[in-house]
């Protein structure tokens, strides 16, 4: 198959390469002055050399101080065109920055925004920073697997008339995909902005009709470093339509962005887009084929459930490999530990399930070896089938006492978590990964959540709380 007829130019990559080829002796920052790229004996090259060699700023590097080349803007316009959007901004603060930006753009002090309670913690940051007043909505949860299936369009019909925007995550961490088209139609009918956190689905944007922008969302954030090949931290926020115009998005991005962007990081977004325009169709077809072969082989393992479209009867990320384990008796946390020890880290694991990401760079042979290894490990750890113990975080239904912003800025005092039942939390407790808060600022602390936090701490890291031992909590000092 020939190259994709879409544009394959990469203006920011070209500018990056031209700058590298020039002899640059800058009389301006960065302080490393590009010397590590030149090799030879340089102060600190044993420690810094490999790390800083490819660093190049946009300002006074790939472009001049006035950005007169306009390479970043050109690259952003090409991204927007490739995924069907009207305007896109490259981010170096990950999808976290994109989610904050989206909520600032669409929400605002005391404006009500419907937010999926199983959102990544960056949505909470967006609520604190924007001052939006969240109305939590909840995804449907699979009755047996205990995994989120996405927020259904029907659940938006019950929202009050003053809700100005809806924020959902699709794909979810476990790979389930929402009916974004249905959500967009409902939001259009109600004159609301639909924001989609598509952090895990950058590849979907390059599959016609599958990305959230193509399906009618107004603002979509996607991590280029997750499903695609960008540098860690890279993401893009894209808008389509006139509900959120380019100026409004720019204002929100500029509120949260560095003024010293890395041309290297951003050029990796441009390069990824150009590669997808050129080879994406074939590469995606091959990775999807490998993943479905893995799924078919793993489904043959007695008791092993592969979470995909066939199993759930709804859209799922074609590159996520999510296994549900209770009928094999295998503990997902133990399985993930063994995998990590041999160099095969997984996205997330709990007792019942394990989630892995297959990418365009995973070759068929690697996928086959991985399948055989997974089958071997499941047999090694196999036990008696057991009742599921679904992770609590997908199913939290909190009592909200005040907004996350009000709780965040309220006077606080520290008490023992075990004694905090009935108090209002001033902070969040987030098992990471997946980064969905068990307890958010402004929520009433219950005996169940105290128990769930302790349990999450036993099997993994609970992050973004002030006391990593989980012994104490900051509560709102009423
Ligand atoms: C659903 C979701 N949204 C947003 C993010 C944040 O992405 P990033 O790490 O690129 O900031 C994550 C991170 O894992 C996530 O799972």
TrEMBL record:
GO molecular function list: carboxy-lyase activity
Any Pfam family: OKR_DC_1_C
Residue spans crossing the bilayer: none
InterPro entries in the cross-refs: Orn/Lys/Arg_deCO2ase_major_dom, Orn_Lys_Arg_decarboxylase-I, Prn/Lys/Arg_de-COase_C, Prn/Lys/Arg_de-COase_C_sf, PyrdxlP-dep_Trfase, PyrdxlP-dep_Trfase_major
Residue stretches making up the Orn/Lys/Arg decarboxylase C-terminal domain: 393-448
Residue ranges occupied by any Orn/Lys/Arg decarboxylases family 1 pyridoxal-P attachment site domain in the UniProt entry: 24-301
Keywords: Decarboxylase, Lyase, Pyridoxal phosphate
Cofactor list: pyridoxal 5'-phosphate
UniProt keyword Lyase, yes or no: yes
Protein family (similarity comment): Belongs to the Orn/Lys/Arg decarboxylase class-I family.
Protein name: Unannotated protein
Organism listed in the record: freshwater metagenome
